[in-house]
Structures are given as C-alpha cells and as structure tokens.
Amino acid sequence: MTSHLSFPLLTAIVFVPLAGAIVTGLLPRSRVEPLAKVVGALTTLVEIALVVTLVVEFKTDTAGFQFVSNQPWLPELGIRWFVGVDGISLFLLAVTALLFPVALLGPRVVGDSKSYVGWMLVLEAACMLTFVSLDLFVFFVAFEVTLVPGYFLISGFGGPRRNYAAMKFFVYTFAGSAFLFVGILAMVLLVGRYDGGHDTFSLITLARYAGRLPVADQEWIFIGLVIGFAVKIPLVPLHSWLPDAYTQAPTGASMIIAGILFKLGAYGMLRFGIFMLPRAATRLAPLLLALAIAGILYGAVVTIMQRDYKRLIAYASIVDVAFIVVGIFAFSAQSITGGVFEMVNHGLTTGALFFLVGMIGERRGTYRIAELGGLQKPAPIFAAVTILVVMSAIGLPGLNGFAGEFLVLVGTFVTDRWWAVAATSAVVTGAIYMLWSYQRVFHGQPHGANATIPDMTLREAVAIAPLLAGIVYLGVFPAPFLNRITPSVDHLLAHVELASGLHVPPNASPRLSYRVPADQRVDLGHAGLVASTRATGGRS
Amino acid sequence: MSATAGVLASALVARLGAQGPVSGTSGTSCVSASGRVDYLCQAPGSIHVPVDYLSFLPILVLGGGALVLLLVSSLLTKRSRPGLYPLLTLVIGAASAIVTIPEWLHVDHHGGSVDVGGQVIFDHFSVLFMLLISVAVVLGALFSDGYLQREGLDGVEGYVLMLLAGTGGMLMAVSGGLIMLFLGLEIMSIAMYVLAAFHRRREQSGEAGLKYFLLGAFSSAIFLYGVALTYGATGSLQYGEIAGYLATTTIVHDGVLLAGMFLVVVGLAFKVSAVPFHFWTPDVYQGSPTPFTGYMAAVAKAAAFAGLLRYLDEALPTQQANWRPAIWLIAVLTLLVGSVMAIAQRDLKRMLAYSSISQAGYVLIGVQAASTRGAAAAEFYLFTYVFIIAGSFAVVSVLQGRGEGRNDLGALRGLAHRRPLLAGAFLVLLLAQAGIPLTSGFLAKFYVIEAAVARGQYPLAVIGMVAAAIAAFFYLRVALLMYLDGEAAGVGGPDGAARGPAAADLQLGSPRMSQVAGGSPAAGMPLAVADRSLLAGLEPVASLDGEAVSAADVIEAVPAEGDPVPLSTAIGLAVCVAFTVFAGVTPWVIDYARHATFLF
Q1: Is A170–B496 a contact, with Cβ atoms under 8 angstroms apart?
Q2: pLDDT exceeds cutoff 50 at B533
C-alpha cells in the first residue's frame, strides 16, 4: 500500500519545520525579534495544513501504513528512508502539529527569540520524524535528535536551575538510549542471519523474522529497547530527570516535552517493542504492568505532596503515562486503543495545563501553591479555562480524558482484572490532587499580589483555544478518532496473538475487519491461519 | 642498528625466496612484461627486489615534497614569502591525495599485492590511510599558517616536519612487517617530538616536546622489544609469514609470543593514547602548538591504529583468543577514563586531549571486534575523526589569541554572539564528537558499536554508548558556554521575575557578566592580549558542573577576543564542517571505508 498521493506528504511534514528552522537561523540579527515569530507561525501553520491533509486523506478501513515513502539512504548498511503512518501514529502527528504553534506563540519568551524559534522548529521536525519513521535507524536518529533542541531550550530559556535540569535530562535519556541502540543493533544483526544475511532496519522485515530468534534473545533485546523507552516515558524507577526538566523548562518547552516527548517512549514501546517482539512483550508484560502500577501509586502519593504547582503537574504526568503503559501491556483491543487515545488526550491536556501554569508563573513570579490563592476573583476566565482542563485531566465524562480512561480500564479489566482494580486508583487519586491543588490556587480570598493579577489576555485565549476545542471535541465525539485508531490496533493485537500464543478473551480480541497491504504483512504464511483459528475458537 | 639491518636483510632474502618461483622470470633478466620492467638486468646471484612504485607513490610525494620544501627554502631568503611554504605543503598534500585515486582504482582492478620484497602491502586499507594522512597534511597546512604567522614562528621547518611525520605515518599504514612498522613509527615520532616543542618562546611547548620525547622513546623501546620477541617466537617479521607459521604450528609454550604481542600492543597503545598508556597525552596536547596538536592527534592516532590493525588482524588472527580480551580491557578503560576525566578539565586543550583519549576507545572497539566490519568501522572512525579533531583544535587556536593566552573554557563564553560562524562550526564539531545523529561522529560510533554487537559483545557496546552519554556532558557544556547569552539571562522580564528570589541569587552572575563582557570589551581585549601574567593569575579553580556555570564564570568573564580568523583557517574549518555533515548523512564515505579491507 503506497500513498495514493504522488506528493511525499510525510517527508514534507518532516522537512517543512526543518526548513523553517534554517530560515530562522539565517535571519539577520538586527530585525530578528518579530521576524522569527512570523517564520515560526508560518511554518507551524503550513505544518498544520499538511497534517490536516493527511488526516483527511487517511483511509479508515486499512490497518497498514499509508503514505509510505521508501527510499535508500545508507544502502550498504540496510538503512532506508522508510516512513509511513497508521492509525496509531496519525493522531500523535496531529496533536504534535497542534501543540507546536501554541507552545511557540502562546507563552511569552524571554531571551533570544531567534534561537528559541529555531530550536522549537528543529524539535518539531524531530518529533514528526520519530512518529513516522518505520526504519529503526531513522527512528533512533530522530529519537536522539529530539534531545539536542530539548537541551538547548531548557538550558537557554529555563528557570534558575536550568543548566542542571537540562544536563540531567540529556545525560539520562542518552544513557537510556545506549540500551535502546544496542538492542536495535542486536535485533538487526541477529535477524539478518534469517533474512538471507543482509541487514535491514525495516520495521516490517524485522517484525517478520524476529519470531525466529531464540526466545531468550528476544527477551534480552526487548529489555534493551524497554530500558531506552522507559527512561523517556519515564517509568518509575527511571523518572528522576522528569520533575527537574519539566519544572525548569520554559513554558513552551515544557508543553512540548510533556505533551509530545513523553509519547515517544510509549509510542516506541507499542510500535517497535511490541510489534517486533510480541513473544517477549507478552512474557515480560507482568513486569511492566507492575512497574506501571507502582508508578501510578507512587506517583499519586508524591503528586499529592507537591508544594509547587508546576512540579505537581509534572508528577501528575508520571501517573498519566503509567496509566497509558497499563493500557498497552494489558493486551486487549480496548485497552490498547484506549492507551493510544490517552496519548493524544494527554498531549492536549498536559500541554494546556503547562500553558496555564506558565501563565500563573508569568503573573505571580512563583509556582508555590502556598503563595497562591483566590485567583478566581481577579481572573475568572482564567479560572474557568483551568477548571475545564482540570476536569479533562481527571476524566470527567464529556471531555476527552473520560473516553481514554474508560477504554483502558475496561480493556484491562477483561484481561488483567486485579491490575485494572489497582489502576482505577489513578482515577481517584487524580481527582484528589488535581482538584485539591485547583482549590488551593483558585478558591478562597486572594491576598496581596494574588488579588490584582490580570485575567487571561486575548493572545493567550486565542493560543489555548485550539487545545480547548480539541479537549471538548474528543470528549463529545471520539468516534472518528477511534475509527481510525482501531484497525491498526486490531492488526497489532492480532499479530501479538498469533506470534506469541497469547490468549485474549473473546470480548477483548481484535476484530479482523481491516485490510493489510501484501508487502506489509508480517505473519507470512499465516494469513489463513488467523481466520481458521478464529473459526475454531468461535469468535470473529 | 646493525642487528636491525641484518634482520631486515634476512627478511628480504626470505621474501625473495618465496617470490622467486612465483614470478618465474628470475635468471632470464631484462624482461619487460606488459609494458612494465619487472626485473632490471642483474648479475647472477645478486639479490634483486622488484618494486612497483605506484604502491607507495604518496609516500614518495610526501617525503620528496619535504626535501623539495627544504631545497626551496635554502634558495630563498628567510621569510621572503609568507604563505609560500603552507601553499607548497598544501599542494604536496593534495598531490599525494590525488595520487591515491589511481592507486584505489588499481587495487580495484588487480586486487591487493605485496611489494618491495613484502615490506609494503598495497591494498585498499593502505590507500585509505594514505589518503587520510594526505588529508591531514592538507588540513594541517591550512590551519598552521595563521597560527605560525601570529606567533612569529613561520618558516619552512614546521611544514617539513609535518610532511615527514606524514611520511612516517604512511609507512606505518602500508607496512607489511614489523621492521617497516618500526621505521615508520620512528620517522613519524621524531618529527612529532620536534613539532610538540616547536613554539620556542613558550615554556610549556618545550616541556611538552621533552615529555613526549622521553615517554615516546621509552614506548619505542618497548615496542622494539615486543618485535624482537615476536620474531623469536615465530621466526619472522613479516605479517603474512607470522600468520602462516601460527596457522600451521601449535606453540606449546607461547609465553614468548604472548609477551611479544603484548609489548607491541603496549607500544602502539602509547601512540594512540589508550588508557593506561595515556598519561603523556594531556600535557603534550596542552603544550604543543595548537594546530600541531590537531595534526598530531589525527595522524599519530590514525597511523598507530593502522599498525595495530595490521599487526593484530594480519599477523595474529589465530591468536584472537589471547589479544581480544586485552584490547577489550584497554578499550573499556580508555572509554571510561577518557570520558570521565574530560569532565574535570578546565583547559580547552586538555579537555580535547581527554576527549581524544575517549575517541580512541571507540576505535579500539572496532579493533576488538577482529572482523572485517570492525576494521572498516575503525577506519571510518579515524577518517571522520581527522576532520573533527583538526577542526576543533583549529577553533581553539583561533580563540586562544596571541601567545596562546587563553586556553580555558571561559574563552568560549558568549562566542556565539561575538562570532556566530565560528561558534556554529565548533558546535557541529562538538556534536560530532558527542555522536549526535546527522554528523559523521554518530555514524562512526554506530558503525563500531554495530561491529561489536555483530561479534556478540553486548556489554562492550553498552559501555561504549554509556561512555558516549558521559562524554556528551562535557561536549554540551562547552556548546552551552558558547551560547550562553549574558543579556538574555539577565533581562528581568516577567519570566525573570517568575524565577523568584532564589532565582535572582543564582542569576547574579549573568548581569554582572554582561556588564564586564558587553560594557567594556575595549578594555578587556588589550588586557587579554597584553597582560598574560594577570590572566594566568586569574586561572579559576572552581569546578564547573552544570549548575555552577554562571557563578564560576564570573571570575573569567574577560573574553579573549583574538585576531580575525585567517582565511586559510576559515577555509579549512569550512571543509571540516562540510565533511562532518556530509559523511554523516550520505552513504559514500562509509561505503568507501567498507571496501577498504585487508589483503589477507
């Protein structure tokens, strides 16, 4: 299945921000201040247009990768420019495209706007490439490249401890990537033996042959990949870079890091870890579920204790992402769909929350909850917007958070009942810390500087409006999104079932009502097997 | 010396005996076959060594070029033509680089061969290293000119020594036996010792030269002892014969062989500055004239690695079980010590010295793999490293100002605002050293790690990548220092206020810094140039960890505004940066390295 458009849309999506960054870099230094913003705005708007085209042209009935572009890059090493999009990555691209202009233009930036806009656009290109690459080498390159702009954004524009935070962020993730990198290489070289001796980094080919590796090898490779992704997510024992990085980053960058960079890890686990190594993934799922549940419980307790509003939101992200991991490793059609949906939600909600918290910081000069209070009085619109986002974060029905949480919990309950029970605590504790902190910051009588803060300005309102629209739209009418996500998730889960012998209960198993292009099938020779298994199993 | 000559002669004779029947024309002299005279007219019973000059033409170009340069200088009055000698060196280096093209094609068509009685190996590996060293000579000539003129050291000597060192390096790379390897090693090293001590008015330079010479002579002795023991154990000095002997013979008591092997490895590990034989590196790199440091780091490392690869992979492939663990250990130590020690450095040249140590660790990973892939990975690494390290030291040589006044990290502060292009170039080179994707450094690391993984060396691969993460710390710190913006950090806008009282405290450094840097650059500059003793007194001692950057830098806020970047240096830097990006995103350079395999 190749693109039915002759225009290489995905390649353009990757290179437009890069071109914007180069243009920004070449701007004359004298008149840079307004020009850089204009270039940034134009680039991100073009990017949105491209992504909208992508979503509109996306076919709902197929589970394979669409808009595929496959060109040799470093042919002797088996490295190709192999990009494509499916239901899992489609809306991650969309939320990335949506969040960047908001992060770029919404918060006020102090400092050299040229390098800020430039690095942001580089970051956008790297994020987009991470989500569309189907070649593991390209993926790893993009995964790593995100660190460089992230580093410079934090260290150049962040809070007082920005250098420390930026360095910790970089070195932590880079060290985690060491395992990811070795895992990828081991995978490629070991699979190469089964694939006629030539190496390839193509996801499809690797997934096709990975099942032939000895189970122990599969598990070791999977562990390597997971360590790399777990640092990025971050799962709980590896999370200590996160509060520093989020708290010290400037508002725009923390929106992106929390909204998008976070997802790279979860997305990588789903796309690369599980898809290539389903047997190892199912065998090690209990371990990951345990880590995720530990993250939910630990994260909730730590979040409740936070005295700094921005740090509180940062820790809350740990809980949210652990919740997504539960959904992924519960291995049911609903829970994985819910996990993917949650990734999109979390991008919107957390992005909006960091934006709002950044506004408090701009107005009050502090994020300490004890020094805030009663902000509702002087800034009613601000408070109203905040409560909407907070409600979305705790999963109020009718807003986006609900659909995702519900799917994850239902799906997990079917396959791993007690894990679901434990995960439910996230919903309860989430309500506690989100509402309690909101209460302390916005309710009550304002004192001192709190009484006179300006309300949301028009610029801020315009900036956050797309996020709010997304939050409401996804909550009220998620069907178009789920329709596009589901076939890809079903395809993934069917592959897992077949390759690992995992038993998925009938009411959580994938529906096989999708098409996969022939050159993207990974279960070679099993095409009929799925159907026959289903027939004898009595489900369809 | 006479003993050496005797060994050489016997080796030559032995080689001839092996070759005679193959060529089949000895005795019927004066035969010209296929347009090429294979054998000159010779008296019966005399020893005749056939020579195909193409196989080592670049060596002749460089060595002959050195002589031409000396000749030209003796005909001209001293300092009559500034820029003539670097130009000539450039032409000689370029000529020897161009000569490698027909060589490569020749090997493509006819396959590899041994020449000069087995002393010279003519294969893609040789050609690649000859090209590498030619390129290093070209870059060295470009970068040295500005520096030597600034320091009042210009003259022919530096360039002659560079050419001679390159000649020695090439001899090492093409060597077919240990004698040739030793000859090359000595020719290269002696020239390098003088280069290190070349700045006659700088005390540190003389110290560096002396230190390099003493330790280098010591390591040469160790190397030579290893050569002798290898000969004693195997009865030959030629790689092919050693390998053949070891393949057909089981040595029951292999103590002599192992001792010889390890002593040779130690001698070469000294030259590549692998841990624990690295102690000279920071001192020598710091003291030597900066462009020569870059040249030294590029050529000495590449040539010694070429020798190591040849010796281990061609002479001792059967002994892998013995030498691979040793190289494994050296590689791990080199990676970790190099990366960790670099963090503690306050001096730019010392930091780059430790960084070059850790880079040697990656090449050792490739050596350790003991495979074609590993060798090709090591070659690619070295090839890309020439551009990176030469360029990095060129940036330092521009920054340090007259008399190498500023070598500390503070000299970089705010560079991006004073000289955006120079800072941009240095940023690319630093990111390449850190192994960030889309630079040649990433592909190089990728390739060596892949070689290790292909041999099942997962722990080594992980250690290599973790060392890269540690190393990224100090590369990024330097990059950050260049982009630190006094003004931006000091602006007390709403976000600045948002940082609260604690923030204001920590930020104090920046406004003060911007006052010094922005307010009185005119006063700062002459100070930096004129009063070096004062600056030496200001040498800061505080350790620079991520957080303390702003605080510590207050002490060293005087920016060293050197002279404008000389045109030759600018051209060289542009070449380095362009190649670093080019090799990082296109397949051609890596393909070239992949084909540069051994003869055997």
Answers
A1: no
A2: no
**Is B494 within 8 Å of A108 when comparing Cβ atoms?**
yes
Q: Which domain holds residue A119?
A: 9-537
**Given pLDDT bands bounded at 50, 70 and 90, which one contains residue A340?**
very high
Flag whether residue A222 sits within 8 Å of chain B, measured between CB atoms.
Answer: no
Residue A174: its chain B contacts at CB < 8 A? 468-469, 472
> In this structure, are residues A201 and A181 in contact, taking their beta carbons and an 8 Å threshold?
no
CA-based radius of gyration for chain B: 25
The verdict on residue A2 lying in a domain is no
For the stretch A422-472, pLDDT in tens is 888 888 888 889 999 999 889 888 888 888 888 888 888 888 999 999 999
Contacting residues of B for A220, CB less than 8 Å apart: 458
List the structure tokens of A454: 């300006």
The length of chain A is 540
Q: Is a pLDDT exceeding 60 seen at residue B529?
A: no
User: Does residue B357 contact residue B274 with C-beta atoms inside 8 Å?
Assistant: yes
Q: HEC profile for B497-559?
A: HHCHHHHHHHHCHHHHHHHHHHHCHHHHHHHHHHCHHHHHHHCCCCCCCHHHHHHHHCCCCCC
Q: Report the pLDDT value the prediction gives residue B572, as an integer from 0 to 100.
A: 93
Structure tokens at A385: 């917007």
**Closest to A54 in 3D by CA, of A16, A104, A111:** A16
pLDDT confidence of residue B498: 35
Contacts of B498 in chain A (CB under 8 A): 159, 361-362, 364-366
Chain B residues inside the 8 Å CB shell of A175: 465-466, 469
C-alpha distances in Å from residue A198, one per residue of A201, A519, A520, B265: 10, 18, 19, 34
Structural domain count of chain A: 1
**What whole-number percentage of chain A has pLDDT above 70?**
95
Give pLDDT tens digits for A477-494: 888 888 888 888 888 888
pLDDT at B535 over 60: no
Q: How many CB atoms lie within 10 A of CB A421?
A: 13
A1 part of a folded domain: no
pLDDT tens digits for range A47-57: 999 999 998 88
Rounded to the nearest integer, the mean pLDDT of chain A is: 86
DSSP, residue by residue, B103-154: HHHHHHHH--EEETTTTEEESHHHHHHHHHHHHHHHHHHHHHHHHHHHTT--
- Residue closest to A153 by CA, chosen among A261, A29, A252, A47: A252
ipTM value: 0.83
Report yes or no on A367 lying in a domain. yes
Which has more pLDDT, B203 or B15? B203
Q: Is the whole-model pTM more than 0.95? A: no
CA gap A460, A182 in Å, rounded: 44
Flag whether residue A155 sits within 8 Å of chain B, measured between CB atoms.
yes
Residue B486 sits at φ, ψ, to 5 deg, of -50, -45
Question: Dmax of chain A from CA atoms?
Answer: 74
pLDDT digits (tens, 9 = 90+) for B226-268: 999 999 999 999 999 999 999 998 888 889 999 999 999 999 9
pLDDT band at B485 (very low <50, low <70, confident <90, very high): low
**Token couple for B27:** 């005795």
Which residues, numbered 500 to 559 in chain B, qualify as contacts with chain A under a Cβ-Cβ cut-off of 8 Å?
500, 502-503, 506-507, 545-547, 549-550
**SS3 for A74?**
strand
Tell me what the mean pLDDT of segment A501-529 comes to. Answer: 72
Distance CA A376, CA B357 (A): 59
Q: Is A58 helix (H, G, I), strand (E, B) or coil?
A: coil
SS3 at position A515: strand
Looking at the DSSP assignment, which residues form a beta bridge with residue A66?
A85
Are B339 and B471 in contact by the 8 Å Cβ rule? The answer is: yes
